[in-house]
Amino acid sequence: MIPFNKPSIVGKELEYIQDAFGNGKTCGDGKYSKLCHQFLQEKFGAPKVLLTTSGTHALEMAALLLDIQPGDEVIMPSYTFVSTVNAFVLRGAKPVFCEIREDDLNMDPDHVESLVSPKSRAIVPVHYAGIGCEMERILEIAKKSNLFVVEDAAQGVNAKYRGSFLGTIGHIGCFSFHETKNFSMGEGGAILLNDESFRERAEIIREKGTNRSKFFRGLVDKYTWVDVGSSFLPSDILAAVLWAQLEKMDSIQKKREQIFDKYMDGLGELEKQGFVRLPKIPSHISCNSHMFYFLARTGKERNELIEFLRDRKVYSVFHYIPLHESPFFQEKFGKVSLPKTENLSRRLLRLPLYYSLDLKDVEMVIQCIREYFGSMN
């Protein structure tokens, strides 16, 4: 059996977990949290990075920092995970969904510009598959209308757009370290505060609305409740797992690139024959090989291939159901037509890609896909 995803121990995860217990501090912001904070800030050049309990909570913190109010509009793609929209709907905002581009499945800046209204407060680009959105254009649109930009870089850790790391380009960036991501702590995330004005309040919101962080730094003699907030700090046990993965970032990245490249080479002939469309990565983008997907010709063909692979113990999956088609959105906000998003989402198929996946198994997956399409000749 070749699973779609498999969590991997890549270094000293178990040793660091034991050490975290030995330190007598397994709650948030212990030794390993601080190591991760320092590494992420230095590696990506972000002014301030704070670990969170999930990528979802990083997005929820962003919505709080922007002081999103009921009736505000937030522009984002419908083709994303529900966390992207929930973070803002929880504050009373209305999600305004934009189309995605056919080449990279990222938000279409032309459509984004047409959706800006006097009620707009923010644009949330989602860097699908670790391939950066067209951030220059998005920032231009945002600046023109005085909007905030929150990057959902859950899939984009260690990927770049025109030399800048994803998550460091907008006002705020949000990472995920879920078990399906390149670098994992099981459940976890991080918020990148690229605008200095958010730094102090972010610490308060993350510490249940208290100035506890200032107290620990000796800046106040006691801490108290000073703002809204919640418990967004992950356990230092989880941070210990992440630190072990961050130490091996280069080797993890290299292995994922090998798998990604093998899929690209092995399925290239099928693309030439018109059976599939492989990922398109522009020259100004440095992808992190977060996932490997391709587009089938039709949704029916995609679904049949998933079953064909499953019969051969290869587990592939489709991805998001577009959020504008969800019962909750339609009941609360009404119906929206996004034909490109609907078409592309029905044709997309994701293949197994994880650190411990053997390249021989990748070849087996490729052979099964060739077998399926070969039966059509």
Overview of this structure, please?
The strands form three sheets. A seven-stranded mixed beta sheet has the order 1-9-8-5-4-2-3, sandwiched between helices. Strands 7-6-11 form a three-stranded antiparallel beta sheet, with no helix packed on it. The protein has a three-stranded antiparallel beta sheet with strand order 10-12-13. It folds into two domains: 13-247, 3-Layer(aba) Sandwich (Aspartate Aminotransferase, domain 2), CATH 3.40.640.10; 249-374, Aspartate Aminotransferase, domain 1. With 377 residues, it is an alpha/beta fold. It has helices spanning 13-22, 31-44, 55-65, 82-89, 109-115, 135-145, 199-206, 212-216, 236-247, 249-272, 299-311, 327-333, 339-347, 359-374; strands at residues 48-52, 73-77, 94-98, 120-123, 148-152, 160-161, 164-165, 172-176, 189-193, 276-277, 285-286, 292-296, 348-351.
